[in-house]
């Protein structure tokens, strides 16, 4: 299976059901080089809703290499699609039916793809459409329009030198005015020009350069479609380049530095400033760069929060890839009463780890908890085993909101079930003085032994007695 694919989101068009199902459209939205393993049903539907103005995705479809449409239902459908991807099929066209549109009938499900891989025709031979009567072939028009739009639409593919923003193209299309303005801003930064806005409203934006420079660019709403298009363009410049650029705004620079800050959250403002100066010949003050870094980090924290929405899909994938794996997700009851879904706890124990425990590990389990840093915070509870060579062996782990007798009780009950500990006969637990842990061990596994970890005792002892004779006693 390939590792990366290009995803094309088709929108702003019209469905034709007869004589065969086609989607006549003008606009596309592109994800380039997307990692296949991260593909999820929720993310694809969210992109249609949040970026392409769909109210709700009633049906999600894609086109197979054969040209036929197939319906994707949930992450099971996405997994089937992932298995179909290959070197000959690594550009995926997604289509969606909005909530207000009529549902498409007689479209096969993707899970039946291997049984039926021909182009699916909807309707009967005796039916005709306006396109047939006028001698136009809808499918051919569809193909040419897709190719034209694919070539002219500018995606936000950002590298260090902004090479893809050195030139604009007459007829270039954008999904909305915001995207168009972003591309122009990157063009301005990449070319070091003092381009300004002449007119701007909901339906257009016009740019000009300094006095006597012939550069002009006008972007208007496309009358036939929902997107915007460059309708006037003169890229000739007679002005001088400038290192002070009013279009190098914090929002644009945050997109430019996104990957750098994500890979190194400790990136210094001084280094960001030097990078812009040496690579783009752009002068930006430190206060703006502080805002840039804060924007990137805030968005990164938001992506962490969004990942909680993928937990159910992650749990299902674990169960399918390693049958017998225990994954338990608890939601907050208080939030449920308010009609909200809020994460509370997560427990994981792989089937492979269960088999390792039963296959010959020592009947010895270490328990510990640690604070989680970051925006979401919480506590991680861990159970560790030990093999005959005294090597650590992970058994299970959990993420909880607090470390209490109740959460330890919950964790140990699940661990008892996963490892079949029964009442704890012949099992020894070892731990530090964790909150509520000793009572939880007694309640869940009353026959088990419990011992304190000498290393932790020594560390706690040294905190209280840092010197003198008492320190030497241990």
Briefly, what is this?
The chain has helices spanning 41-50, 74-84, 130-133, 138-152, 177-191, 250-256, 258-263, 269-280, 286-307, 311-321, 333-337, 351-358, 405-419, 437-444, 454-464, 469-472, and strands at residues 4-11, 14-16, 22-24, 27-35, 57-63, 69-72, 91-98, 173-174, 196-201, 204-208, 216-221, 228-234, 326-331, 343-349, 364-371, 379-386, 392-400, 428-431, 449-452. It has 474 residues and is α+β, with helices and mostly antiparallel strands. The chain folds into 3 domains: 4-152, Roll (Ubiquitin-like (UB roll)); 163-304, no CATH class; 322-462, no CATH class.
What do you see in this structure?
Helices cover 35% and strands 24% of the residues. The protein is α+β, with helices and mostly antiparallel strands and 474 residues long. The chain folds into three domains: 4-152, Phosphatidylinositol 3-kinase Catalytic Subunit, Chain A, domain 1 (Ubiquitin-like (UB roll), Roll), CATH 3.10.20.90; 163-304, no CATH class; 322-462, no CATH class. Strand 16 and strand 17 form a beta hairpin.
């Amino acid at each position: 299976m390939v590792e990366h694919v290009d995803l094309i989101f088709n929108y702003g068009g019209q469905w034709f059901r007869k004589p065969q199902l086609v989607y006549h459209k003008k606009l596309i939205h592109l994800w380039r080089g997307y990692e296949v393993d991260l593909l999820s049903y929720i993310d694809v539907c969210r992109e249609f809703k949040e970026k392409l103005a769909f109210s709700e995705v009633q049906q999600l479809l894609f086109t197979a290499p054969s040209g036929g449409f197939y319906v994707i239902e949930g992450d099971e459908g996405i997994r089937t699609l992932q298995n179909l991807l290959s070197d000959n099929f690594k550009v995926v066209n997604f289509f969606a039916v909005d909530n207000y549109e009529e549902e498409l009938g007689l479209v096969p499900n993707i899970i039946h793809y291997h049984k039926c891989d021909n182009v699916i025709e909807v309707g009967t031979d005796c039916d005709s459409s306006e396109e047939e009567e006028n001698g136009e072939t809808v499918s051919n028009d569809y193909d040419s329009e897709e190719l034209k739009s694919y070539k002219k639409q500018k995606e936000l593919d950002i590298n260090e030198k902004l090479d893809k923003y050195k030139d604009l193209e007459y007829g270039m299309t954008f999904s909305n005015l915001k995207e168009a303005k972003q591309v122009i801003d990157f063009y301005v930064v990449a070319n070091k020009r003092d381009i300004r806005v002449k007119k701007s409203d909901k339906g257009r934006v016009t740019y000009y350069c300094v006095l006597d420079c012939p550069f002009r660019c006008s972007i208007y709403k496309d009358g036939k479609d929902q997107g915007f298009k460059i309708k006037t363009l003169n890229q000739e410049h007679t002005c001088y380049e400038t290192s002070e650029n009013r279009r190098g705004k914090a929002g644009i620079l945050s997109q430019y530095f996104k990957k750098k800050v994500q890979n190194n959250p400790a990136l210094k403002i001084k280094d960001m400033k030097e990078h812009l100066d040496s690579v783009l010949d752009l002068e930006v003050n430190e206060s703006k760069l502080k805002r840039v870094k804060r924007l990137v980090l805030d968005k990164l924290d938001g992506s962490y929060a969004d990942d909680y929405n993928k937990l159910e899909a992650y749990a299902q994938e674990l169960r399918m890839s390693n049958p017998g794996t225990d994954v338990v997700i608890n939601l907050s009851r208080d939030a449920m009463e308010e009609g909200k879904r809020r994460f509370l706890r997560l427990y994981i124990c792989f089937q492979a780890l269960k088999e390792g425990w039963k296959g010959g590990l020592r009947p010895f389990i270490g328990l510990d908890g640690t604070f989680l840093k970051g925006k979401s915070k919480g506590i991680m509870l861990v159970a560790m085993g030990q093999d005959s060579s005294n090597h650590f062996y992970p058994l299970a782990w959990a993420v909880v909101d607090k470390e209490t007798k109740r959460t330890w009780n919950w964790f140990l009950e699940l661990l008892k079930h996963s490892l079949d500990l029964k009442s704890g006969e012949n099992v020894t637990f070892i731990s530090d003085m964790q909150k509520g842990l000793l009572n939880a061990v007694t309640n869940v596994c009353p026959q088990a032994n419990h011992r304190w970890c000498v290393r932790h005792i020594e560390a706690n002892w040294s905190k209280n007695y840092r010197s003198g004779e008492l320190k030497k006693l241990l």
